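Input chain follows. Return structure tokens only.
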Amino acid sequence: MTKRSFLTRVTDEVRYSIENITETASTLGTPTLRLGVTGLSRAGKTVFITALVHNLIHGGRLPLFEAAAGGRIARAYLEPQPDDNVPRFDVEAHVDTLLKERIWPQSTRQVSELRLTVEFESAHFLSRALGRGKLHLDIVDYPGEWLLDLPLLEKDFRTFCAEALVRAREPGRETVAAPYLAILGETDPGAEADEQQARRLAAAYTDYLRACREDERALSMLPPGRFLMPGDLEGSPALTFAPLDLSGHDGPLKPGSLGAMMERRYEAYKKHVVRPFFRDHFARLDRQIVLVDALNALNAGPEALADLEAALAEILSAFRPGKVARIFSIFARRIDRILFAATKADHLNRADHDRLEAILKRLVGRAINRAEYGGAEVDVLALAAIRATREASLTHDGETMPAILGTPLTGERVNGETYDGRTEIALFPGDLPDDPDVLFAADAPASSVRFVRFRPPELQVTAEGVKLSLPHIRLDRALQFLIGDRLA
């Protein structure tokens, strides 16, 4: 395993400090908090940001968010974002999709950014006497799959290959990896470099990663992340490589060989894709929320849960946790608060929310220990940034069971019936176990909990004809942990 050189690290830190000082000066003294929002595929990043912005701007019901509950938020509004070279998070389009079409917006495919400015009254008398406070909340949205690339900065090509092949040959992956492994078995890394062979390997490896991500497997450890989200890099040499079996090739790879070409492209991927992401976005964050779709992994079984646990630990290894005094944050940024949130809590009755949180704590235990050791505050909760269901109860054979009411998405199947996207149903989703460890056992039984995808809700209207904000579960608690101290 290789490490970035000491000179590279020092150079990067100096650059981060200069950029922080420049950014602070450009805000004319208004404090700025950069919040990273990430999660693996379909964890609900876009929905979370949209709900956060909509509820703050429209005065949503946030009883556990102290600044809002105390009436201290004067107003919240959008402003132009500070980074002109980063796409804007299109919150208006996402709100229209949710409210007018009642479908979920498209998931995150690239880095995007949004600035929300909050004007507030301080909770402290002396601070109130000095006038109204203001905070720029810069929300940075990025795919969690890209986080899995950051540990590659510390790994050479041989390490990357060895780890990737161990995973590909695991029982839960070997079947879908078979086409890639077959091509690999016919490949000699010491043979002359061949562009067509490189393309065949890269395509087969990408197909394998894509198959791992499907719902029936729901696997999470899928680096390199850009193979599944190539964007404008699709077809470039930096994305045309794959792990090779180097077990019989000790020492440096022969110049001009296929192995040497793949190694060069792997290093180019780190240089031109991974490092710029870390430098330009990730290293500038103050707070972080990691959204986790634990229910999807739970549906897929213990192998998916174990893979998600490994992915979350790998993700945390890339974070820069720690405390930095606010006066020194203009020189160096660290992520001082990290929130892990199990999404789609509305797919369960509230009696199971504590169990869902316990499962998430089990998943991120290693990650939490590392972050707390670095000095960051960490919290775990179950939430639904937008609540698509309501609580209900069902009676079956004289027994009353907790249930949820909602409208399944078009095409969803429940007990053999396919729904049209207009019919509301009452569903008993089942119960999660009291002990989360039983779910991680190799011989764990199939989950008895049924998870159905529901349409976004229709907004309720008061007797006066006023539309309420998007309903949620514990979005207020998330806000209190992530930004509450900066609005005190």
